[in-house]
Amino acid sequence: MLKGLAITPPVVGRISIGRVVERNGKRLPEKDDQFTLTSQVQNRDGWVLHPMDEALRKEAGGKLRSIPVRLVFNDPGLNLRADYSLFDRTTGRPVCVGNGETSRRVGNEGVTQQPCPGPEVCPFASGDCKAYARFNVIVGDGEEDALGSFVLRTTSFNTIRTLAARLQYFSAVSGGRLACMPLELKLRGKSTAMSFRTAIYYVDLVVRMGMTLEQAISQARELDAGRKASGFDQDALDEAARRGFSNGTFEDLIEDVPAVVEEFYPEDRMTDASEPSLRKAATSLGSKLEAKVTRAANG
Fold first, then answer.
1. Any alpha helices (H) in 174-265, and if so which ranges?
2. φ and ψ at 218, to 5 degrees?
3. How far is CA 218 from CA 163, 169, 209, 221, 223, in A?
4. Cα angle 262-92-123, degrees, rounded to a multiple of 5
5. Structure confidence by residue, pLDDT tens digits, 20-37
6. Mean per-residue pLDDT, 147-152
7. Domain range annotation of the chain
8. In this structure, are residues 96 and 103 in contact, taking their beta carbons and an 8 Å threshold?
9. How far separated are the first and last CA of the chain, in Å rounded?
10. What is the pLDDT of residues 200-249, one digit of tens each?
11. Which of 29, 69, 175, 287 has CB 3.0 to 4.6 Å from 137, enough for a Cys bridge?
């Protein structure tokens, strides 16, 4: 095995809740209220849709807001990997990756270990560090490729926190049979003061529609027993993945990072293309406050 190269789960496609659009010569992220499944191929119009996107969209009757999935591993931390990440916008290479305690940082002396205070107070990051997670799932039941996964990349705290909790809970209640649970990704919306009461979307992980948690656990036990009877060694698969992740300093390949930087670190952080609803709400709020101050001054 090549040292320094992280061996990650085979990826056959991407799952996103947004897209990158070109506006005034800039490529900027644009949020959406539905899932999109793409291949790993890009053309001048963006990512090419995966054939499963159309199939699932037909079943959903339009907007794709839930996706049936299974997990690759029993270990929650192998399915969802989250770090505080800082990328070099010029080269697209990872510069510093940490967990809130320690970090791996690239410098003139190579990769060194440094304290990681978190993105809010880190003087090195200067506000450009973000929580960044990768979540690998098998769409459907793996009929075409039992180990080929789709990857969801996200910098959403709501998504990261929700998925981390769900994975731990499902692992606990199923007796560690996480890879056998019939689950689905579900898109949820919420409003906060920071979003000016407009809806923001995040990804949740739930048991499949029409099933109770108890039914999902029962099915997981049956599938686990069937896999063991056939010789399927889930523990060995988890251990192989664990060794593969630890073989490299950083998980993302160099060719993948520019797309990550383009999507999560746009040139203009508040533009009509990237945050139309927030800009409109902020303008409206500012106008209301200005009018209130004027009335108070005249009153």
1. 213-230, 234-246, 257-264
2. -60, -45
3. 22, 16, 15, 5, 9
4. 95
5. 666 776 666 667 889 999
6. 95
7. 24-293
8. yes
9. 77
10. 899 999 999 999 999 999 999 999 999 999 999 999 999 999 999 988 77
11. 69
